[in-house]
Amino acid sequence: MKTLAATCLVSLLLAGSVEAAVKTYQVTGPVLEVRADAIVVQKGADRWEIARDAATKITGDLKVGAKVTIEYRMTATTVFVKAAAPAEKKK
């Protein structure tokens, strides 16, 4: 029983460390638009639309025109695997 509990604890700790290893990125610039599901920021000549949800932590007064730094992660939502090309025959 103690071994099972120890194994579960180690698994939870390792799972947390894997999540922490996911690379994070930042974008800084003035806010162009604030919506319930996204924040739009001007980065150079580009508009960056970063999704947000109820878990997004916001410190300060988020409003259009405010200069912000947004930390985000890239997460795959769908992956399509293509069939391998047939091997070429040697003559």
Average predicted confidence as pLDDT: 85
CATH architectural arrangement of the domain at 23-79: Beta Barrel
Order of helices and strands: HEEEE
Number of strands: 4
The CATH topology of the domain at 23-79 turns out to be OB fold (Dihydrolipoamide Acetyltransferase, E2P)
**Structural class designation:** alpha+beta
Text of the CATH class of the domain at 23-79: Mainly Beta
- Globally, the shape reads elongated
Count of individual helical segments: 1
Short description:
The protein is an alpha+beta fold and 91 residues long. Helices cover 21% and strands 31% of the residues.
What does this structure look like?
- The chain has 91 residues and is an alpha+beta fold.
- It has a domain at 23-79: Beta Barrel (OB fold (Dihydrolipoamide Acetyltransferase, E2P)), CATH 2.40.50.
- Helices cover 21% and strands 31% of the residues.
- The chain has one helix spanning 2-20; strands spanning 25-34, 38-43, 46-51, 67-72.
- The protein starts with a helix and ends in a 19-residue tail after the last strand.
Q: What's the helix and strand layout?
A:
Blueprint: H1 2-20, E1 25-34, E2 38-43, E3 46-51, E4 67-72
Antiparallel strand pairs: 1-2, 1-4, 2-3
Task: Spell out the key features of this protein.
four-stranded antiparallel sheet, alpha+beta, 91 residues, OB fold (Dihydrolipoamide Acetyltransferase, E2P)
